[in-house]
Write a structure and sequence with these properties.
Layout lengths: L21 E9 L10 H7 L2 E7 L5 E5 L7 H14 L3 E6 L3 H16 L3 E6 L9 H25 L13 H5 L1
Helix pairs in contact: 2-3
Length: 177
Amino acid sequence: MAAKGRRDKHLSVSASSDEEVACVACDYGFFTSKEDEGKPEEELEKKYTPFWAMVDDKTKATFGDVVHRKGAEDWSIKVAVEHIVDLGHHKVTLRSDGEKAIKAMLGQVAAELKRKGVTVVPDQTPMGDSQAGGLQEAAVKTIKENTRCIWMQFCEMHGIKSEVGNHRHKLLPCAVR
């Protein structure tokens, strides 16, 4: 019904009726403690190590990697390109929110993918709109849940104090991947 919607209509990801484009959605996240949830991202970046999450809507494959910082970082770009190439799609839509850091990273990823013969269609959901970016938000949630589960089990097995806030531990990147 007209005038009832809260947001603009989302465009279909398919390029034509016979060729569907895979949508790879990406976003950053942090392993925050309860007292820091809801704080501004600038504050979280100073205290916590960021990770990025990526999910393919066709295969449901979900990837996560700890990064040194948000933005166009050589290692992050290399790994993201490897993940997308491994998915085997010849045409992908890279979806993210309007955050400057993820846009910079995905711009470099798109350039590398094009050099490798993958057609890239950019797509952007409104920044901060978690409903419009449900795919990438769900990927961040999945990575957090799975990592916390692995981390807690590791700590229990090895007698380490199991604080999820132990976010700078050297083994955390292994648990995320």
